[in-house]
Design brief:
single chain, 128 residues, mainly alpha, globular, 70% helix, Serine Threonine Protein Phosphatase 5, Tetratricopeptide repeat
Length: 128
């Protein structure tokens, strides 16, 4: 399980560097997970997907051991990639959200994110 979380964290870090170039580099360390998620939601709702990705990626980096929080932020990252039609990145992130559920006890992570991730994966066009 720890190896899976480490792998997910490394993927998230990769996406942070790929997506945070147009927003401030520093996100205050004193922000809680919920404050970071709220800032991500606010940025998303205003159409600033890059800033939203930075906030959600900060959550996945800082709270990698808190699986419910990690799953929520990871799902939101995948959702943004679906909106951007970056299906390759979306697929990686959303499949990893689903895989979290295969490696945890029932109820350890809210089931909604697994269901939502599967719904988002279904939106990815099949390759011809």
């Amino acid at each position: 399980m720890k190896k899976l979380i480490l792998n997910l964290a490394l993927i998230s870090i990769f996406f942070v560097f790929a997506s945070c170039s147009s927003v401030p580099k520093e996100i205050p360390m004193e922000l809680t997970a919920q404050e970071l998620i709220q800032k991500g939601q606010d940025a998303f709702e205003s159409g600033n997907y890059k800033a939203a990705l930075c906030y959600y990626n900060a959550v996945t980096e800082r709270y990698a051991d808190a699986l419910p929080i990690y799953a929520e932020a990871s799902y939101e990252i995948g959702h943004i990639y679906i909106k951007e039609k970056d299906y390759e990145k979306a697929s990686v992130i959303l499949n990893e959200v689903v895989s979290l559920y295969a490696h945890t006890a029932p109820g350890e992570i809210p089931g909604a994110y697994e269901k939502l991730a599967k719904l988002e994966l279904a939106k990815i066009p099949a390759k011809n």
